[in-house]
């Protein structure tokens, strides 16, 4: 393919993420790829190519296979290369072959393979103790109620994203990491900028740097003044070898970047989907416990992580009847896989009472989302409190005018203007 642009933020053709019609259905271009097959090769705008996996079974097969690597240092992704880098690489003997192994000293375990990944993941999952989760559950309800009280005190209209969906998970992660109340605004702002693909990459890089500095200060503070939070636990639980400051900063940053934008967008988009499906909204209003299973359906139906996970083939690997060459980049099309007709009947219908079936919204395999229980609590509690405490909740803008986050890492809505009685 001929490179189409030299100033790329992401080389996947943008139409693959464009919603055409229903804002909750997968993009038509993503579905069209699936019509060609569950594993398809696409040309990227930088002149390279990648593979899109869109069948439910095929996504599980890739994510469950350790020969598909998560290591972005060892296997440079064609998704992050400039057209010049692609041309250089193609000119080298061996073309797309992986680089030599590098020793990893960081703590970005979401982008690591065994043996480093399972060790760091185990240490962190050990910090999600029953006691800490119970405390967080109570905290989620308190935060949700406080945010709604502020909305009500301010009138009968608000932007639900700004007033509720963004601050709720941000405040919960602050509690998890032990961030001081006074520092929460700074933290929240840097996160939003770092993850906003529509901003210039220089601005995003600067925000990521600020976030790391923030985390580094936090780690130093927790070394001398431990609290009842995850960072303090990771520092003071005497692991052998102990975690370095760099690993701690990376692990805290991973928790934040994996847990904040995802949950915030699930909250905003779920509220939008419920308001557009009044029968389902009525179900929740009549019995909020319907959300116990209902959040699984929302996660399946909305699949906000619409741009990944991504993996790299460490050798020539066959998925279904397609062979993916060593070193190639593979992107999961979760929105389509979560609507696979071979798995669900009437997959395009939102039905909160659908019997619970495992979906791929939290991934699968070794990197399955570590925060999924916390995310479920935030979604159940957040949505139940919104719908029961704000009677008559409704959109104040036609649904077709709600701005969609089509080209963002995480899908959702930029704003959701609502009113209540
Ligand atoms: C991993 C989705 C909320 C922490 C993942 C992965 C997905 C995902 C798809 C797998 C990535 C991969 O395979 O490469 C979501 C969604 C969420 C959510 C849709 C909200 C609705 C959270 C929360 C936290 C969290 C609240 C923590 C506070 C993590 C971590 C990983 C992860 C640490 C990396 C696990 C590993 O590499 O072993 N998440 N997530 N996530 N998530 Fe979540």
Automatic annotation (TrEMBL):
| Annotated region described as Disordered, given as residue ranges | 79-99
Q: What Gene3D superfamilies does this protein's entry cite?
A: Cytochrome P450 (1.10.630.10)
The UniProt entry, under PROSITE patterns, shows: CYTOCHROME_P450
Keyword Metal-binding recorded: yes
Ordered alphabetically, the record's keywords are:
Heme, Iron, Metal-binding, Monooxygenase, Oxidoreductase
Cite the SUPFAM superfamilies for this sequence. Answer: Cytochrome P450 (SSF48264)
InterPro entries xref list: Cyt_P450 (IPR001128), Cyt_P450_B (IPR002397), Cyt_P450_CS (IPR017972), Cyt_P450_sf (IPR036396)
User: Any keyword Coiled coil?
Assistant: no
Which family is this sequence assigned to? Belongs to the cytochrome P450 family.
> Which protein is depicted?
Cytochrome P450
Q: Which organism is it from?
A: Streptomyces rapamycinicus
User: What's the source species' lineage?
Assistant: Bacteria, Bacillati, Actinomycetota, Actinomycetes, Kitasatosporales
